[in-house]
Amino acid sequence: MIDAVTAGLIAGYGIAIPVGAVAAYLIMLGATHGFSTAAAGGLGAASVDALYAAVAVAAGALLAPLITGVRGPLRWLAAVVLVAVAVHLLVAGFRRPADEESPPDAPTARRAYLAVFMITSVNPSTVVYFTALVAGSTVSFAQPGEAVAFVVAAGLASATWQVLLAAVGAGLGRVRTGPGARRWTAAVGATVVVALAVRTAVGG
After folding, report:
1. Which of the 8 DSSP states describes residue 106?
2. How far apart are CA 49 and CA 169, in angstroms?
3. Please, which residues have CB within 8 angstroms of residue 88's CB and are 6 or more apart in sequence?
4. Residue 72 — φ and ψ, nearest 5°?
5. What gap in Å lies between CA 152 and CA 203, rounded to an integer?
6. How many domains does the chain contain in total?
7. Quick one: which of 83, 193, 78 has its CA closest to 125?
8. Residue closest to 182 by CA, chosen among 105, 78, 69, 81
9. Are the beta carbons of 192 and 87 closer than 8 angstroms?
10. What value does the mean pLDDT take over residues 78-100?
11. What is the CA radius of gyration of the chain?
């Protein structure tokens, strides 16, 4: 059981820590709309990581060739989603509130969760990553307890990292003042996400 938990923690942090579209979006959510909204988005990413870990444990090495076969269309779908995210960041950042002291309309925690869930779920690398780990692991996932421990640990590891990113973004938001700073951070965030969309589309 300890081996399964350790493997799950390593796998969860391994997929969550590399900087990518989700990390950029969560930091921007935190800076623009606060910790709770960004944390909800982070839990959306962690949910997908846990789900794909479960799929990988259940399907084993048989799943990787199937995912690889549709990797191209999934890459383009992910790029389209990322461009939509970038547009949303720009619109929210440049929208002029009725009262300049009031922030622009914030997405609800539910919307943030669903948006990040969607962004993460269309990334074929996630399920391939977990499938490869499971296929090459020395842990016996034939035992239900071992499999559950791996999946839960992977999900918790991912969740803790995503929530940390939300906190970093919220911290940046506290030092950000005025509508000019709001537009600047929105423009930077949108540019980063568009760059990630291009890299995703070309298979980088």
Report:
1. P
2. 21
3. none
4. -60, -55
5. 30
6. 1
7. 78
8. 105
9. no
10. 64
11. 18
Token duo for residue 60: 């084993």
103: tokens are 């922030």
- pLDDT of 174 above 80: no
Lookup result for tokens 């800076």:
31
Residue-averaged pLDDT of the chain: 75
Region of residue 49 (left: phi > 0; alpha: psi -120 to 50; beta: else): alpha
pLDDT digits (tens, 9 = 90+) for 115-152: 889 888 876 667 666 766 665 566 666 677 888 898 99
Give me the domain span that covers residue 147: 2-201
Question: Scanning the structure block, which residue is given the tokens 């509508």?
Answer: 179
Contacts of 202 (CB under 8 A, 6+ apart): none
Give which of 134, 144, 150 is closest to 64, Cα–Cα.
Answer: 134
Structure tokens at 188: 């930077």
Q: How much of the chain, in percent, has pLDDT values that exceed 90?
A: 17
Give the pTM.
0.67
- Write out pLDDT tens, residues 24-76: 788 888 888 889 999 999 999 999 999 988 887 877 655 555 655 666 776 67
Q: Round to whole Å and give the CA distance between 55 and 40.
A: 23
Q: With contact defined as beta carbons under 8 Å apart, do 162 and 73 qualify?
A: no
Q: 147: which 2 tokens?
A: 């499999």
Residue 140 phi, psi (nearest 5): -85, 95
